[in-house]
Model the fold of this input.
Amino acid sequence: MVGRVRRKTVLLIGVALALACRSKSNDATNPHMWHEPGVPIVIEQPNPSVVVGIDVRTGEVRWRHWLEYEQRRPYGVEPMPKLSCGAILTPAGNVVLSYEHELHVLSARTGELQWTETNRGYQFCPAVGPDSSLLRISRQRTCLVKLSASGDRLWTYDFPEAGVAVTGPLALYPSGDVLIRTDHRLLSVNPKGEPNWDVPLETEAE
Done:
């Protein structure tokens, strides 16, 4: 009986993690407006090709970020890609914009582009840690990658037992630990890329 209750509890934790990851990723199907407490800028996307920063105190448009992307094909020009995830505001005061093909990191106050990275090979929406690092699922959903606030790769953590991620990463505040739900385990990784613990997730009770 205890084993069944324990398995049921773990399964509920996994479901809660999946829902939390969806919320943390700021899914782009939500209204295209984002704000974080303490940041005097609200981020708004009036159309697929532009994101603007608006001063919440005055309503003044502080900056505009235009997505310059055009890929020619034999039969014409590919349509302008949209945000694949909602905007994320980091503790360092940056805005993370994840488009279909590329990730852009801007200054929230000025809109200045800080750095970019291809989205090729990455899955799910990124998460942001308390140190403003970016946490991403890579290599066919088999590992977690941590990037610094400036875009440098800090480490890669391979999921044990050939695990495959089924949700995006969830960053915990203020510890900086990261939770990942794979196809059969719930994993916790510390800010240095070392495992804290992992819990097997059973789908059937004894």
Summary: Residues 82 and 180 are 26 Å apart (CA to CA).
